[in-house]
Specification:
464 residues; alpha/beta; Rossmann fold; Coagulation Factor XIII, Chain A, domain 1; 2 domains; 6-stranded mixed beta sheet; 27% helix; ATP-binding; membrane; ABC_transpr_TagH-like; cell membrane
C-alpha cells in the first residue's frame, strides 16, 4: 500500500450463513465431509447472505470520508472489517496507523468497572501505557464532563454518558484513523457540537476520518468524499455533495416503489436531458452573466420526482419583480417557483432551501409552514394546502423576505411535495431540483458591515 494511503479496500466481501433451523448448522458441519469422503456431491444446508460484495475504495492520509446508506446496507459491517473486529470472506483491507473507533455504544467497556477504570482499560487496548494515560487523563475527564459519575460503575450510566466517555478516550489518543459510527446521535446538541469541533481539529491536524451518519448535511459539510452503500454494494463513490444527492435519489426511488405497490398504475418519473459543466459556476463568478442554462439545463441533471406536478422554473427577483442576481443585506429578496400539473392536485407544499457555497443549509421553508401557522391561529380556510389545482394548470408561489444573509454565493433548491396531512408527518416528494437558481450577497462595507452567515440585526446601547 502506498505510504500516502491510510485505508485501501480491494474486492472486500462478507458473507453470512443463514440456517433455517439450529440442527442445520450441525448438518452443515458433518454431512458435507461425509459426502465428500464417499464421493457424493456435497449439499449446502444454509442460505448465503452477502452483507458486502466487492467493495473497492482508497482513503488518503488526512482525508475525511463519509459512509452513507440505509439501515442494513453494510455500513457497520464495513467499519468492523476496517477496524479488525470482523474478518472478510474475500478480498482485503489494509490500514496504516493507529485506529480509534467509536462503533457500538460502550464497546470495549466493562460494565462492572468504574468510568475511571474503563478509561485505563480502553486506553491500554488502544496501545497506550499507564504513564501515557495518566498524562491524558485530565483532558479525557474534562471532555467527557460527567463529574462524580467518573468513579461509578459504567452499568449505572445513561447512554449519553457512555458515549461521552467513549468519545473522550478515542479522540484524546490522537489516532491516525478515527472511525465514528452513529453513536454520537445519542448525545445532546451541545456535546455533539463539541464532538464535531474536535473531529474537525483532528482532521485539520492530519487524522484520517471515516464518518457514518444518516444526517446528510453533516456528511456533506464534515467530509470531502463519500461512499454510498446499497444492499452491500457500492452504489456511488465521489465528492460528498454528489453522493448525498444520489442517496436522496435512492431514498426517493424506494419510497416511490412502496407507493406504487399500493396503486394500480404507478406514476411515471419524468426525466430531462441537459449538458452543463458542473464547474461552470465559480464562487466569484458574476452570476448575472450566467445564462438560462444554469437554472434549466444544470438543474435538470440534479432533479427527481414523480412528475405529475413539476417545477418549470425558479426565478430570483428584486423589489421591482425584476430578475436579479446580486443583493445586499436588507434588500427585498423574492424567489418565485413556477409549477405545472399534469393531473388534478391538492394537499401540496411548495418549498425552498437555501445553501451557501460551502454546502451549509441556511434556511428551508415552504407554504406548509405558513399553513401550519394559519391552522394554529384558526384561520386555515385559505391555506395553500387546501387549494385544488386543475389538470395542466400553471401556477407559481413567491417567497419574499428582507435579505438577512452575509456575503456569499447562494444556491436555491426547490421542491413540490404532496402532504397527506398538513404537518410534515406524511410527505411524498413530487419534484425536487438542486441548484435551481443562484444569487450573490455583497456588503456595502461603507454603509453597513457585519461578519458571519446571517445578519441578526443586533443593536447596541451604552450608558452615558
Amino acid at each position: 500500500m502506498s505510504s500516502e494511503l491510510a485505508i485501501k479496500a480491494v474486492n472486500l466481501s462478507k458473507c453470512y450463513h443463514i440456517f433455517e433451523q439450529p440442527r442445520d448448522r450441525l448438518k452443515q458441519f458433518i454431512y458435507p465431509r461425509i459426502q465428500g469422503a464417499i464421493g457424493q456431491p456435497t449439499k449446502q444446508y444454509y442460505k448465503e447472505f452477502w452483507a458486502l460484495e466487492n467493495i473497492n475504495f482508497e482513503v488518503a492520509k488526512g482525508e475525511a470520508v463519509g459512509i452513507i446508506g440505509r439501515n442494513g446496507s453494510g455500513k457497520s459491517t464495513l467499519l468492523q472489517i476496517i477496524t479488525g473486529t470482523l474478518t472478510p470472506t474475500s478480498g482485503s483491507v489494509e490500514t496504516k496507523g493507529r485506529i480509534a473507533a467509536l462503533l457500538e455504544l460502550g464497546s470495549g467497556f466493562n460494565p462492572e468497572f468504574t468510568g475511571r477504570e474503563n478509561v485505563y482499560l480502553n486506553g491500554s487496548l488502544l496501545g497506550l501505557t499507564t504513564a501515557q494515560i495518566d498524562e491524558k487523563f485530565d483532558a479525557i475527564a474534562g471532555f467527557a464532563d460527567i463529574g462524580a459519575h467518573l468513579d461509578q460503575p459504567i452499568k449505572t450510566y445513561s447512554s449519553g454518558m457512555i458515549v461521552r466517555l467513549a468519545f473522550a478516550v478515542q479522540v484524546q489518543v490522537e489516532p491516525d484513523i478515527l472511525v465514528v459510527d452513529e453513536a454520537l446521535a445519542v448525545g445532546d446538541w451541545l456535546f455533539q457540537k463539541r464532538c464535531f469541533q474536535r473531529i474537525e481539529k483532528l482532521v485539520s491536524d492530519g487524522t484520517t476520518l471515516l464518518f457514518v451518519s444518516h444526517d446528510q448535511e453533516s456528511v456533506r459539510t464534515l467530509t470531502n468524499r463519500a461512499l454510498l452503500l446499497n444492499h452491500g454494494k457500492s452504489q456511488a463513490w465521489g465528492t460528498s455533495s454528489d453522493v448525498v444527492l444520489e442517496y436522496r435519489r435512492l431514498l426517493h426511488e424506494e419510497e416511490m416503489a412502496y407507493f406504487s405497490s399500493l396503486i394500480p398504475e404507478p406514476a411515471k418519473v419524468v426525466h430531462e436531458t441537459a449538458s452543463v459543466d458542473e464547474n461552470e459556476i465559480e464562487p466569484n463568478t458574476d452570476i448575472s452573466a450566467v445564462d438560462s442554462r444554469v437554472s434549466n439545463a444544470r438543474s435538470s441533471q440534479l432533479e427527481f420526482g414523480e412528475g405529475h406536478v413539476r417545477i418549470t422554473g425558479v426565478r430570483v427577483l428584486d423589489c421591482n419583480d425584476q430578475d436579479c442576481a446580486i443583493f445586499s443585506p436588507g434588500d427585498t429578496l423574492k424567489i418565485r417557483v413556477h409549477c405545472k400539473t399534469s393531473e388534478p392536485a391538492s394537499n401540496l407544499n411548495v418549498a425552498i432551501r437555501i445553501r451557501n457555497k460551502e454546502g451549509v443549509k441556511i434556511y428551508s421553508w415552504g407554504t406548509l409552514n405558513q399553513d401550519m401557522s394559519m391552522q394554529f391561529s384558526g384561520n386555515s380556510d385559505k391555506s395553500f394546502w387546501r387549494k385544488n389545482i386543475s389538470k395542466n394548470e400553471e401556477f407559481y408561489v413567491q417567497f419574499e423576505c428582507d435579505c438577512p444573509l452575509g456575503m456569499n454565493l447562494y444556491e436555491v433548491q426547490a421542491a413540490v411535495s404532496h402532504e397527506e396531512t398538513p404537518d410534515y408527518s406524511n410527505q411524498r416528494i413530487l419534484h425536487w431540483i438542486d441548484e435551481a437558481a443562484f444569487f450573490q450577497v455583497l456588503l456595502r462595507k461603507d454603509e453597513y458591515f457585519f461578519g458571519g452567515i446571517c445578519d441578526l440585526r443586533v443593536h447596541a446601547q451604552w450608558s452615558n
